[in-house]
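Ticket #276: bound-state structure for S-adenosylmethionine.
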Amino acid sequence: MEDEEVEKIEIRLLLEALRQRYGYEFHNYAEASLRRRIGLFMSQQGLQHIAQLIPQVLHDREFLRSLVNSFSVPVTDMFRDPAVFVALRETVIPILKTYPFVTIWHAGCSTGEEVYSLAIVLHEENLLERCHIFATDVNEDSLSRAKAGVFALEKMVAFAENYQNAQGRACFSDYYHARYRFAKMKHFLNKNIVFAAHNLATDSVFIHPQLIMCRNVLIYFNDILQNRVLTLFYESLDRGGILCLGRHESLRFSDVERFFQPLLAEERLFRKTLTC
Ligand SMILES: C[S@@+](CC[C@H](N)C(=O)[O-])C[C@H]1O[C@@H](n2cnc3c(N)ncnc32)[C@H](O)[C@@H]1O
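RESOLUTION: The complex was predicted; output attached.
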């Protein structure tokens, strides 16, 4: 049997162990990315075969947590793709301002950089006080870091440049306290944010927001899981609510495509039709 065939069997067995023992669902993650993540984890652990992960995962909770965290890709930035934040200011926020209170679901928030960026924009547009933001992710370590709101000071230079390109209105350093090699985001930015664990592959809808942001998450899922998640967003969103996806993500070929209108197609902003 070819090595690749054996590897496929091992991955299937590993995912089945995760499902049966803990209810974790990774079967519909994009195969190439999953294989890359597992390979990286094995070389960190000094293991040769994927099957060697199975007994450890079944019996060692700490090992399980590291493996599950290694499946998620916590790469993120503040004001990543600044044009999206300009579009939020110019196109989305005027719509949100028509509501007395606004609920926002930020799905796949990773270590929080993106949700703090959104909070800054909402603050500058005088809307933050009226917003409740639910920031969720499957990776609990990332969520703890997001909650702490502490980032490496050396990253702030690049973040400040993104902020300027996103039409930031103030001086970026007004939003954090610098101490030693770290920057701690100011408390007023996260006082309306609830950080919580939520798994897009298995969990259901829990709020009815006017805006869902979920960028650079669907790219790690196969078509089946993408469809599940987009249906979840459709069911969750308020009528007329807005969905913001990542640059390389779309609603195309999903079951719910027909229930959305493009709001700003190039920035992947879609609006749930008012009639459904
Ligand atoms: C590349 S990051 C994107 C972060 C941020 N949205 C951005 O665009 O900068 C992908 C995030 O998706 C999260 N993720 C992966 N699978 C998930 C799932 N099943 N449910 C919820 N979040 C998931 C990962 O933990 C990771 O934090």
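RESOLUTION NOTES: The mean pLDDT is 95.
TICKET STATUS: resolved
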